[in-house]
Amino acid sequence: MSAEVLLSWPAWAREQRKLGASARACLREIAVLADDRGAAIVEIAWLAQALDRSERTVWRGLAALEERGLIVREERREEGHRAASRFQLVRDPARAINKARARVEQLGADVDTVAAHAIDLNDNEGLRTALAQACSEGWHGPSANRLALTLLEHGPRQFGRIAARQARYEAMSISTALADVLTLAWIELRTSAMSMIKARSPWAVWSRAVECAVANESLASAEDRAAITLEGILPEDGSAPSSDASELYVGIDELTGPLERFIRALRDAGMPATLAWAGSVRIAHIAAHGSQANAHTAAARDATLQSLGIGPQAARAWMTLLVGSRRGTVASALHADESALATQAQVVMKAWRNTTLVA
Hints:
18 helices; about 60% helix; about 350 residues
């Protein structure tokens, strides 16, 4: 029996077929920027420039990827303003859908016998009518089956953002979270059917019901999220990571707590948000999985940073911004004040600009 090989996200993106040129290009660029969980924070303007396409074309490509269930896009806001979107790559949406299909069929639906088409996401009256008929049929009949088909066809897009949040909070794969959320969506559809029938927008009520159900089942708490600190990435005493450092994980979600000021300093210095996030995740990963003495050298030699357009000098300066200088003349992100952080961020920016000019 051969072992299953888990492809890197860029390799996985290259394996996806039957995509248009714009969708394929968007997927591959996001895959390059993604952390090990497949999450990336990316600006639309970055994609347009990197792919030499208009923003309108980029939006069309992203819509096609969402339709295929290969990505989940979440809007973000910073200080009240729209910020770069968070993208979650979905390695195997078909597996999640098949798992949800089996669970829905165990609950009484027979999706394989459906002859009608799925109800459109914008068709509130169609959803209302199907719900009323399913209730009258006792949830055993063509209307219930059509609703199940609608869930499996449109659910990954309609409830994908909820699944992405669930995956983050409960530390599970996006495919597993998606299967769980789709199952909950079917249960909520049946238990809240009368509320949806009476509502002005049944689709919106369904989404809200699923969101509340997932929140009630979530294992995460506000205290758990607030407990995330720099320890394990940057110990208080400046010592190297412990012997089990290989088990440490650093991704987008680990940099949204105390380390966010580190990324904010880079952005204030003029760095694109996309690169600030992708580069910082990689720098923190290197710092967490090696000794502090060799962190700067490891960053300078790192192929992933180089693929992002970050040369050796910029990589060393970036590592200094996070962990401080080897001789202690520059404080780490944990101990530096805002002024010192801003000064070192400017050093990183200057080195990065020089790299791009040479390239």
